[in-house]
Amino acid sequence: MIVRGSLFATVFFLGGAARVGAQGPPPKPPAPLPPVEVVATRSPEAPHDVAASIEVISGDDLRARGVTSLRQALALAAGVAVAPGGDAGPASAVPEFWGLREFDAFLLVVDGIPWGGALNPAIATLSLRDVERVEILRGPAPVTYGATSFVGVIHVVHNAAAATARYAEAHGGSFGTGGGAVDIVAPAFADWKSRLSADIDHQGFKDDHTAFTRGHALWRTGREENGRRTWLTADLNVLRQDPASPHPREGPALSAAVPLDANHNPDGAYLNENRFNVGAGYERPVMNSAEWGTTASYTYSGQRMFRGFLTDISHSPNNSSGFKEDIDINDFYADSHIIWSSVSSLRFMTGADALLAGGEATGATFTYTAPLNGATQAAVREPTTLDKDAGNDRRFLGAYGSAEWRPTTRLNLSGGLRFNSTTESRGEGAEVTHTRASGGLGAILGLWEQGIDHLRAFANYRNTFKPAAFDFSLAENEGVLDPETSRSYEAGLKLRTMEGRVDLEASAFRMDFENLVTSTIVNNQPALINSGKTRFKGVELATELRLPYSLSARASYSFHDGEFVDFVQAFDDVPIQLAGKRFEMSARHLASGGLTLAPDRGFIAHVAFNYTGDRYLNKRNTALAAPFTTIDAGIGYRTARWEVRIDGRNLTDERDAVSESEFGDAQYYRMTARSIQAGIAVRY
What we know:
Radius of gyration: 25 Å
Number of helices: 3
Largest sheet: 22 strands, antiparallel, barrel
Mean pLDDT: 89
């Protein structure tokens, strides 16, 4: 009743505050949305001009909602569900696109650089401080990013070096959470402008012995002159995590023998990472009407971990298995491309890129006895002899080209082709090379155009492949798994009406997958296998209303139907054909809705809900989890110089299973508990 009353109070407050701000002349219609650089094309284009499902969330919207995590940022995005935490620790997350929830199936890009390189998305070190916008592409990007993107791309763009806003912020909240941040204009040199963002955050959780502390700094410097732009960035992350434990399942439900929030890690468990990235790039006009752009980056990641998980839901000795592992990864990324218009109705792009990564891991495994109730954590001596290893070297090379042709003002046809050459070796195994073309076709047609209002139909076909994931498990063998491949088809409508106040997008998709990588257990350690053929299809709807008096609303609904087409896996040493079974952890129904009040001065507020439908917890579809709904809300007040706010997350305190662990058989991470956070920000 308290949560429900708080929700009604927040909605009432939104309406009342908007009416208070309604003094004076009627507001002007919203201005047309400016062009944005969408990750699908590498060119500045508005999302409604691209033949694919794309959403752009502004940094102002993120700040109005008090966003600090990827789940909060994408809470109102269509067709996307983000589970907090996961095997990568409480600072991480596991996104779902098009009904597929896999840690490596999507691509995370930060300021034009693949964040995780040729390996897996580095979500735990993602900073949403000082963000200009977040771009969300549903479906693969087979031309621009080739062998690293399958079901979606998330592109986080931070404010440029030339931005002049200065902020200082401090916050605190539930479970010992607290931190602070600054965004400043750094000293300039000649005509180079610089910006520095720095933050430190400690996040506590209701889960026993679970928390993380992250220190982060991002420095940007750049110069623009006569259409030429040059930039440099440096990003430093120091992350310290106390991991949670996944909750085991017995039969059709999560085990009642294990209390909520119990932690079965050994005493002193940790997931630590030091990560450093440096990047550079430039853009130059060439050949009169063309633009040449080049980007390069280097990243080092040093990970140290000591953790464990239940292997037997009993009080028997050695009911848990753990490992200590040290992982060092170096990766390099480079891209160079040229975009030009030969005539007014034609635009071409051609380029090449390289993703190089090398990682080495050493570790040791052990068994220990953990109390099921998690009342205490077992004292386990960290192994000093690291006698197991896992290594992976990858070279992803690609050459690509695309063209856009606008034969009439209302019709835009596009197509692209990419040639991929991927070489990989694991441990002492032999190198394996795959060469394959990927690409896509798209069309968008204006059915009705009136000023900035329009109704457009779009369709696309995309074909891509991706080398199998590698997660440095100490159970990994020396062989290279088969690459994953997909073919996707999508069609839909994009509507803008009421002088730009209302946007609506509706789309339907189908994606056929082969050799999807899924998790299994080998000698009580996580490992990966290919999973035959799967199919995902569905319908997605999203709308956004830009209302008067700084009030906006967003809503979305998605129907996802993912199922195995041909996949045999052994359970208790018995091969089982899973054809026709629904894909595990994939909800058929997702819905979201929210209101945000964000004037430049005065009261601010937001409220949002997320509905997740029923989903099977296992591949055999014997454990069906019930639907659940979470609610976030917040209120505050801002002036030209300062802002105070209080935000509540998961006010309904739902603790359902939201992602499956790869560390333990039939174990799941739950939704994080209800939390409250208050903060103050000063602009100077």
